[in-house]
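Morning F.,

Quick status update on the modeling queue. The single chain you submitted on Monday has been processed. Sequence for confirmation:
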Amino acid sequence: LVKVEISTNSDLKIIEANAFSYSKIEEIFIPANVSKIGKSAFRNCNNLIDVDIPTNSDLQTIEANAFSYSAINEIYIPPSVTKICEYAFDYCRYLRKVEIPTNSNLQTIETGAFSNSTIEIFSIPRSIKKICGYAFSNCPNLKKVETSFNSDLKTIEYYAFSNSNIKEIYIPPSVTKICENAFSFCFNLTKVSIPMD
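Structure tokens below.
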């Protein structure tokens, strides 16, 4: 299987678990009506480079390992997405850009969601409340993490950014807990800003 064509006006609503896993597709269009990309739906699609998600997408959940071990180089996370599940983009060795709009409703980035990828910059949406363990661990190209003063972020879990190359980080006032080893082995981290109030 190397090609899948889905019309732009498709009524497709759910892409279930393992739907296209281990196939040789190179690109996929996710229709606006799709609300869920199931577990391992595109896992180990080693030739999958382009995932086209429209800006008016109704997508709400990207489940566990949905795109892990694929060859995508960028991904758009529509505002409707509230959760990126564990290891959704794990070992996406060519993933450099993650685009999340400022009006995002994303609340949780689960365990290992972007671990072992090559993302370079990540802007944490204001709506995010928790960054789970290993979410961005082993991301050698990750040099910049952007957060805002009015962020809702409360928890940065264990090993969340471990072994990345971030140089500085701003911890919003909303954060109440930074867990063990959250920034361990970040050898280039020279500045951590925590507001006084």
